[in-house]
Write a structure and sequence with these properties.
- There is one protein chain.
- The protein is an alpha+beta fold.
- The protein has five domains: 10-84 and 228-272, Nucleotidyltransferase, domain 5 (2-Layer Sandwich); 87-224; 291-475, 2-Layer Sandwich (Nucleotidyltransferase, domain 5), CATH 3.30.420; 497-604, Dna Ligase, domain 1 (2-Layer Sandwich), CATH 3.30.1490; 626-674, no CATH class.
- It has 18 helices and 37 strands.
- The strands form ten sheets. Strands 13, 14, 15, 20, 25, 26, 33, 36 and 37 form a nine-stranded mixed sheet that branches.
- Helix 3 crosses helix 8 (210-240), helix 5 packs across helix 6 (180-192) and helix 13 (401-416) packs across helix 14 (420-442).
- The longest helix is centred in the first third of the chain and has 31 residues, at 210-240.
- One of its GO terms (biological process) is glutathione metabolic process.
- This is Hydantoinase/oxoprolinase family protein.
- Residues 515-677 form the Acetophenone carboxylase-like C-terminal domain.
- GO terms for molecular function: 5-oxoprolinase (ATP-hydrolyzing) activity.
Length: 695
Amino acid sequence: MTTDAIQPPFRIGVDIGGTFTDIVVAGAAGRLLAHKAPSTPEDRTIGVLNAIAGAAQAMGRDTRDLLRETELLVHGSTVATNTLLEGKGARVGLLTTEGFRDSLEIRRGLRRDVWDHRSPFPPPLVPRRLRLGVTERIDAAGAVVTPLSRDSVLRAVEVFRAEGVEAIAICFLNSFRTPAHEHACRAIIQEVWPEVWVSCSGDIAPIMGEYERSATVVVNAYVGPRVAPYLRSLEERLSGLGLRHPLLIVQSNGGAANVAEVAHHPVQMVLSGPAAGVGAIRYFGRDTGSSDLVSIEVGGTSCDVTLMRDGVVQMTDQLDVEGHCIAIPSVEIHTIGAGGGTIGHVDAGGMLHAGPRGAGARPGPAAYGFGGIQPTVTDAQLVLGRLAPGPYAGGAIMLDRDKAAEAIERHLAQPLGLTLEQAAAGLIRLVDQNIQHAVERVSIERGYDIRDFTLIAAGGAGPLHGAAVGRALGCAAVYVPRLAGVFCAFGMCNTDVRIDRIRSWYQRLDDRQPDRLEAAFREVEQQARAALARQGFAEDAILLERGLALRYPGQQWPVTITCDDGLGVEQLRRSFEAAHQRLYGHFQQDGEIEALGLKVGARGHLPMAAPALAEPGPLRWPEPGGRRPVWIDDATGTVLTPIHDGRRLVPGDAVAGPAVIDEATTTLLVESGQRLRVTAAGNYLIEPAKKDGAV
C-alpha cells in the first residue's frame, strides 16, 4: 500500500528503464512509496539521483536525510544490456591458444530457426584482426603441454596498442581445468600496460566449452569499461550524499552484489533490471499463499515471463542476447515483444500482426502526441475505453483519444474492412494470445500444469491483460500488485545478496564418487562463503544451494538437478530421471549418466520488508467513482463499466466484473464472470465469480 506515513529505516530500490527511472522506498511496518522520474540516457546517474530526490520530496525530507537513514539501496539497470544491444561497448582484443582464434566466429552452428540457413549470424564483438593466438597449451587434465610464451603475448599487446584496444579478453584451451596460463598472461599484460582492462575466461565462466567461455569473457570485456565506471561513480555520489551502506547491484541471477564484485564480473548485469522481479515474486508469494507462481511483467516494449515452482525461481546456465552467447547462471526469463508500445500492422496478405516493432518512448504511441502515427496497443486500450483520455503516468503524458483513433482507423480498420472497435479489439486479442503462448513456453512446455499456478500480472500494462490471459490459461487466480508499475524496483527492496560459483566436473555417475563429489562441493562452497564474508555476511546468514548438471552420454544439453538432500547415486538418479521425464516425456531405465559440472548458489540472506497487513473488514462492495463505455471481451462487448479509484479500496473490499480499477502506476481490468477482492496486504486477487456471490 502506498502511503506518506513512512518511517525509517528505509530500503530503496531504483530501476532504470528506457523512459522512466522507478524508485520504491520501503519503510518500517511495510509502508511503501513509489515515484517515477524521467530517465537520463546521457548520464544515467542523474536520473537515479533525480528519482531519489523526488521520492525524498514526496516524503517531506531532503535527499541527505533519506539516504542517511537508508539501510539498503539496491539498483538495477539495463546499462550492460543496452551497451551490448546498441554496439557501444569497448574495443576488445581477444587472446586465444594459437590456432583457435576463429572459434568465437565459428560458434556452435545452432540457429533459432533451424530452417533458416540464409540469415547471417550477428558479427562477433571482436573482428578477426583483433583475435590473436599466443603460444601455450594445457591439456584436458590440466597438465602443461606447451609453456606460455611471454614474447608471443608481448607481440599481441603491441598490435592491440596500435589498434586502440580498450579491453583484452583471454580464453585459452582447457582453462576451466586450471587458469594458470590465463593468469600468467594477464600478469604480463598488466606489467607493460597497467591501465588496460583484462578479463580471463577461467574467472568469468570456468566451464567446459571453448566457445561458451570465449563468448562470455568477450562480452564481459566489451561491457566492463562502460559499466564499471558508471557503478563506481554512482556509489561515490551516493556516499557523498549521505549513504552509509554499500550500494548493491542486481545481477542476472536475481540476487544482488556490491559494486566491487559486479565491477569485476560486469557481464552479470546483462539481465539486471528484469531479474529483480525475483524478489517481488517471492514477496508476493506470501500474500497469495502460493509457492507456484508465474509472472508477466508487461512494460512499454516487452513482456518478461518468469516461473516459480515450489518457491524456487527457475534458472538457466546460458543466455542468448541478440545472438551473443553468455554462459552465466541467470534467472530464466522468457521475453517477447508485447508491450504498450507494440505496433499493430497489416501485411500484404491482409493479416493483422502485433509487433515485433515497437514505438519506443519517442515518438511513442499516437495517443502521446509526440509525433507517432503508427497504432499501438496503448492506442487500442484507449480507443476501447480501458484507458481514460487525459493525464497518464503521473501526469507526465496526456493521452489523446482522437489521435489514437485516427492511427487505428487508417492503419488497421480500413485495410481490414473492420470498425474502429473491431480493429482495436483484434490487436488486443493478438497481444493476449502472444502473452498466453509465452507463459505456456515456460510452464506447459516444461511439464508443469499451469492450472496449479497463480498468475502475477505486473508492469504498467500487465494488469490490463492479466484477466484475459489467466482465464485462457485456466490459472487458479490472477494476482495484481498495487505497485505493478514499479514491479522490479519493488523487488529490489526484497532481494538477497547472491554469489554463484560453478566448476566443471566431468565424470560417470557411479558408487565410487559421493566422497569426491562432496569434497568438490565443499571446496566451491568455501569459495562462495568467502565471497559473501567479504561483503559483510556472518556464517549464520549464508544459505547454500547445490546443483549438479547431468546428462545421458551423447546428449548436447544437460539437466540440472538440486542435490541439497544428499549425493547418493540412486538418489541423484531418481532426481535426474524425474526431471528428464518432466522435460522430455521419457527417461532411460538404468541408463548410464554423466556429470558435467557442479554449481553452488550462495545467498546472503536479507530479511524481507514485512508487508503492512490490515485485518480485513466486513465484506464490502464499494460503489464506483464513475462509469464509462469499455470493451471488455468478445462475449461482453462494450458496456457501461464501473470505474473504481484504487486508493479508495481497502482490504476486505470486493468488486464484481466487469470493472476497471485505476491505480497510480497501472490500470486493472476485471472481466465479466470474475470478481476481485483486496488482500490483507492491499493488493488485488482476481478469481472466477462464485455463483452465490461469496468471496
